[in-house]
Amino acid sequence: MKFKVNHSSQNIKGALQITGSKSESNRLLIIESLFKNLEITNLSNSDDSQVMKKALTSNEVEVDIHHAGTAMRFLTAYFAVKEGRETVLTGSKRMQERPIKLLVEALRSMGAEITYEKNEGYPPIRIQGKKLQANSVSLQANISSQYISALMLIGASLPHGLTISLEGQVTSTPYILMTLEMLQRSGIQGSFEDNTITIEACSALSPKTIPVESDWSSASYFYSIAALCEEAEISLSNYRKESLQGDSCLAKIYKQFGVTTSFGENSIMLKKSKCSKPASISEDLRNSPDIAQTIAVTCLGLGVGCKLTGLHTLKIKETDRLVALKNEIEKLGGEVVISNDHLELLPATSLKENIEIATYNDHRMAMAFAPIALKTPVIIEDAMVVSKSYPDFYKDLESLNFTVQNA
């Protein structure tokens, strides 16, 4: 399904309730399944969280998580400690091209029984769940933080807890800290100091209700909208100033484009007024790579250059996001240079109209490019891919007077 997206005004005002963070939701769903006694509120309504819930309650041998990368990593560790359970964990064609070897090797070093069904190092994998006795594991620090979080989430279920030693410079530290905070809020003790993560053993949790903060990655598209129009007042809830999510750095980054963020008790207000814009910006996104697409498209629409670094994990996402960004930005008339870990966009002087944006089975490609409709009408291919993280995205666009129609 293709949607044509357009907007006829340069002034935007509205209030939106954004779904809960899928990052927080998926961590809490694993903890709840292992220990029970948790009531989760404002749970994400994303496809990824629905896939996670279904997998955790499945009695089938084969569990298909489709495109959900977080679910693949977290469930690999989860099923490895489900004593007596045999599971074949599989996913989409793209998921079967995304590496899982480093996590499998770490779990095997702890005594887990995991084999590959097709290609060495990639899903699908067959897991024979068992009681793991190991209490320590080492792995490289610059790998996907989801591998590390997967091990953290099962740590407390092990008889002696788990110590994780990280070698080298840590990637995506905020996501590791988020996992630690989710464990601690649930009642599990742990620490992260000097590249060593310690998770203490836990046999049971006291009953608790834990609210999920709304998703900052989803908020990024409204920061982009605010930046791309002349005047804006957009209220978003439920957000906290002291957020666990690395993408909350948006508030600081988008100041450069004239977007201010005011924090209320349970919400944020984005305001934009006419202002001068920078010629170029430079951002290290190693702790928040999921907002790289949004920032690049914002800069394209504003005619601002940008250099974004720390993007090495984008090559193993739903697609190679660096290549995808280069392809689609250049269709619109921009000029992009990419390497393994950075993207450089030259200031664009004009944009082409009614360009069809390919989404590559990647929800963030669709949502990152939609706001540029404030500058030029665009057609989003496979538009409903957004349901992976934000099913209400187009409905929320329409509430801000965007025109969204079948193309």
State the gist of this model.
By secondary structure, the chain is of the alpha/beta class. 31% of the residues lie in helices and 25% in strands.
Number of strands: 22
Q: What is the CATH superfamily classification of the largest domain?
A: Enolpyruvate transferase domain
Mean pLDDT: 95
Strand order of the largest sheet: 20-21-1-22
**Global geometry:** globular
Structural class determined from secondary elements = alpha/beta
For the sheet with most strands, the description reads:
4 strands, mixed
What is the oligomer described by this structure?
Answer: single chain
CATH architecture level-2 label of the largest domain: Alpha-beta prism
Instruction: Provide the low-confidence segments as ranges.
Output: none
* Helix content class: 25-40%
Instruction: Please compute the radius of gyration using only Cα atoms.
Output: 21 Å
Beta-strand portion reads: 15-25%
Kindly give the count of domains. Answer: 2
Q: How many separate helices?
A: 12
CATH class identity of the largest domain? Alpha Beta
Distance between the termini: 8 Å
The CATH topology of the largest domain comes to UDP-n-acetylglucosamine1-carboxyvinyl-transferase, Chain
